[in-house]
Amino acid sequence: MRLALALMFFLMPTISSANPVRTDYLTSELLASVTSVAPGSRFEVALKLKHDPHWHTYWLNPGDTGLPTKIKWTLPQGFSAGELEFPAPERIAVGELVNFGYEGEIVLLTTISAPQDLAVGQSIDLIANASWLICLEECIPGKAQLKLTLNAAAQAEASAAAPLIAIARSKLPTRETVAARFAALEGGGYTLELQGAIDAKTQVFPLTTQLLHNAPPQSDPSASMHRFVFKQSDEFETLPASAEFLIVPPGARPYLVKVDTGAPPPPSTGAAPLKAPPLQQGQASLGLLTALALALLGGLILNLMPCVFPVLSLKALSFANLQGGERRAAVIDGLAYTAGVVLSFVALAGVLLALRAAGQAIGWGFQLQTPVINGALAYLFFAMGLSLVGAVSFGSSIMGVGQTLTEGHGARAAFFTGVLACVVASPCTAPFMGSALGYAVTQPAPLALLVFATLGFGLALPMLALSLLPRLSALLPRPGAWMVVFKQVLAFPLFLTAIWLIWVVGRQGSVDSMSWLLIGAVALAFALWLKDVSPGGGLLRVTRASAIATALLVAAACLWAVTGVIAPQAQAQTPGASEAYSAARLQTLRQEKTPVLINMTADWCLTCKVNERLALDSDRFRSVLAQNRVVYMKGDWTHYDAEITKFLAQYGRNGVPLYVYFPASGEPQVLPQVLTPQLIADTLGAAP
Amino acid sequence: MNFLQTAALGAGLLAASTAFASVKVGQPAPDFVLTGADGKSYSLKDFAGKKVVLEWHNPECPFVKKFYSVGEMQRLQTSKTADGVVWLSINSGAAGKQGHFDAAGALSYLGKNKATPTAYLLDGNGQVGKSYGAKTTPHMYVIDPTGKIAYMGAIDSNSSADSDDIKGATNYVTTALSALAAGQAIERSSTQPYGCSVKY
């Protein structure tokens, strides 16, 4: 028996740790990952803190109050210690204040390096003077001197604490370079946008102090880059050049991210700060009349947009129907339609202005930046197409408010057709509209709303003319059997519009969100078809009603599912073709006197896509870029992006596209909204 | 708890919780009227035209003791008030919480520690503390003669509870007051305060 005990004692690995030290409400212990240290090697030393229940110590950034735990090392000659590394903290609320710290048992790690000329057999004393602040409601500063004695040997030998330390190491945050954007919001506050596997349960802790309020940020998962909105710190002094964050995804390893804040360089570096482009003054002097004229023209042109045209052809059709005695009804219809368009534009503009006043950095076309709205519109167009082609019909309709409202006759139908036309037309900033809208948002609200109302009026004008001028409507062909065919033909542009919207949702989300939408569309079609099936007996009636309800619920659920799908990584781009826009990067490039071409685009902007197809996606374009050593930066405004909105505002714009060329030296040039390859070649090739 | 009790509790909480504000450097300092330990009433308006230092205090907080135990805070108070600066120590601790003082307790503390602020003010319901966004003890505010906040934040640059760390630190309050006297801009006008949390 004694022999067995002796053997056990002999074989038991020596645990290299100091006696744990007990202080107020805390037990601290020093542990090493090795018992023997090899020359020139590195090993880990752990500071294990065991808190009494409910007492806590603090993280590197303690939050509103508190002090982080620190270690002052006394090491033998030649040894060096790295930084004290902390695991992910929790938010601890003390009344109105927010701190970042730990309860229970935690392990802080330090990597220690041994010198190459370490003499084997030498005894090594590692002394850690640890200090902390431990609090419940009251705070008690604590400290302990913890000592570890190891020995130097030819080879390192793991200690009994090694597994514990390895587990602790695996929980410590790593440093990652992920795509991240940091921007200030108008009206105060900041946003942090991150790419990666982020969801609503991911926690974000600021490491940089005196920048952000320590309360949990608002989390917006709907964008392709997950967005967190922070308030400004009460102790804010100046914007630092960069900000660091700890990201803690649930069930995964936390990581640290460092992001440029886009703060201007301090004047002492001698670099000339970026001047505000002179175009700003030019835009302000646009004048109200010019803006109104441009708005009217822009509205007229909007009629030709493929998303608007099918909707309006329906209305034109109904005017073709109203001949002779129904003239008066036609006039009322035309006026109601105009009212619908104008009021919708004014309402949308009102929402835009209100949101901007409340501090959101958004621009025109914002309503198409949400996948749900795009999906809902896709449903609408699909259902309308089905109705036109004759697959379903609407008698006493119990669903599809948009259907009956735009399908029927009468002032109410006309009014809601106008509303529909506005909703779909707004994101495509046609030529002429850009400056007018940019002007509008710099003016006081009544003037801004007037510009938008004029835009709406321009859109409504052809329809209004048709309804008011009998001569014009006489130009329309007489009703006949052909009208049924025409009606069916019109279904197809509507289907194409629905496909366009589904494509935008696909770009905003992924193939999965498109699939959800398509499933929902089928469910919707099923519900519409079922509605027309003759009811039969009482029980069948009930069954039919509940089946319709279920199908509609499925369609709605699919729409909801669209928002839940995580967006894919940044779209695969032709290598070397373009960079993602970043204000900080632009600044750097301009300081280096590199010519830059900026393309602000969005997936739902047809003008943008056409320009890209014609002038910006070709081999000729790429060779022009390479020849003139121009850096091509693309800003994707498909979703909300505060940095791009700020850039647009600098040039008096509120929507996309916007093309700006920054030559190596000289003022930036704004290119026209309709691009040709020759224009690009001339602009980029011009002598610097 | 029955409905009436719940409603009463809710109403009480609502009444008790004043909004936690935050002030910014360059903004006018919020006015207040508080009773001092000497029983007199003090208002910020009374000191218009003078430089004012506000010091949030909790006698039992280790960070406050860091300065009082070695006589450092007292030294500052004496030397600055001699220069014509108004030094107001404010206690926003709620009754029953750590460091709360009544008038007698405050006077006794001041006598024992030989502290010489212009006045020691009792903010028992925490309203003044919250209107300034005072988070810690000590939390320092320097108000310029025009009534605007010139400095707010930590008392010095070494955030620790150790009195030995006072010597090597930059005292932000002294720096701010000197800059004001010389008519210069204050370099660090807002710093992260350190100390125990104010026990509202």
Write a concise synopsis of the structure shown:
The complex is a heterodimer of chains A (688) and B (200). Chain A has 688 residues and is of the alpha+beta class.
* Major beta-sheet overview of chain A: 5 strands, antiparallel
The CATH topology of chain B is Glutaredoxin
Which spans of chain B of ≥5 residues are poorly predicted at pLDDT below 50? 5-16
How would a crystallographer describe the biggest sheet of chain B? 7 strands, mixed
The percent range for strand residues of chain A is 15-25%
Weakly predicted, low-confidence segments of chain A? 11-17, 268-285, 395-405, 566-576
Mean pLDDT of chain B: 90
Mean pLDDT of chain A: 79
The portion of residues assigned to helices of chain B is: 25-40%
Note the overall shape of chain B.
Answer: globular
Model description:
The complex is a heterodimer of chains A (688) and B (200). Chain A is of the alpha+beta class and 688 residues long. Chain A folds into five domains: 2-172, Thiol:disulfide interchange protein DsbD, N-terminal domain (Immunoglobulin-like, Sandwich), CATH 2.60.40.1250; 175-263, Immunoglobulin-like (Sandwich), CATH 2.60.40; 282-491, no CATH class; 510-566; 579-685, Glutaredoxin (3-Layer(aba) Sandwich). A five-stranded antiparallel sheet of chain A has the order 1-2-4-10-7, covered by helices on one side. In chain A, strands 6-11-12-3-13 form a five-stranded mixed sheet, with no helix packed on it. In chain A, strands 22-24-23-25-26 form a five-stranded mixed sheet, covered by helices on one side. Chain A is elongated, with a radius of gyration of 33 Å. The termini of chain A are far apart. Chain B is of the alpha+beta class and 200 residues long. Helices cover 30% and strands 18% of the residues of chain B. Chain B has helices spanning 3-16, 62-68, 72-82, 103-113, 127-132, 172-181, and strands spanning 33-36, 41-43, 52-56, 86-91, 119-122, 136-137, 140-143, 149-153, 196-197. In chain B, the strands form two sheets. Chain B has a seven-stranded mixed sheet, covered by helices on one side. In chain B, strands 6-9 form a two-stranded antiparallel sheet. In chain B, strand 1 (33-36) and strand 2 (41-43) form a beta hairpin. Chain B starts with a helix and ends with a strand.
